[in-house]
Amino acid sequence: MEPALSIPATTSIVVMGVSGAGKTSVAVEIARQLGWEYIEGDDLHPAANVAKMAGGHPLDDEDRWPWLRKIAEVIGEHEAAGTSFLVTCSALKRSYRDLLRDGHPSIWFAHVSASEAVLGERLKMRQGHYMPPSLLGSQLATLEPLADDEPGAVIPGNGPLEQTVAELVADLRTQRGLSA
Hints:
Layout: E1 12-16, H1 23-34, E2 37-39, H2 47-54, H3 61-81, E3 85-88, H4 94-101, E4 107-113, H5 116-125, H6 136-142, E5 152-156, H7 161-176
């Protein structure tokens, strides 16, 4: 007899992927559909990180660790309060995702993935964001795709938002027993 799947009381969805993948659009729509809180992970970056990216310089691991620890802190606060929520975070490397998961059973990664051509077009059209299109290459080079042993799913993000969201919700229902 197989052991029963243990599903945490809350779910903290980390909508991940490179810049231009559609993380914010997906997270906003999922939050609307589920009635959950949504936090824009970019808002949790230290000012120095924002300035560095706005200047066209990619972040390194030392830049990212304080930001990732802040996101992990927010995840812990939601778990302690018993509330499910969504947060956007590029979470490009396995080591970053491991930091977010450490001690947080509620984590479920939604890796929104799109082709480089689609990402490039989206970044060219985006306005008012500090992340310049010139940094896409460094993000793609850094990205370590979600592994089979990490909680979550890879969601194709090349198509319409509705299709991406529907697939994400379906995977969430299957993997987390979500009844929304």
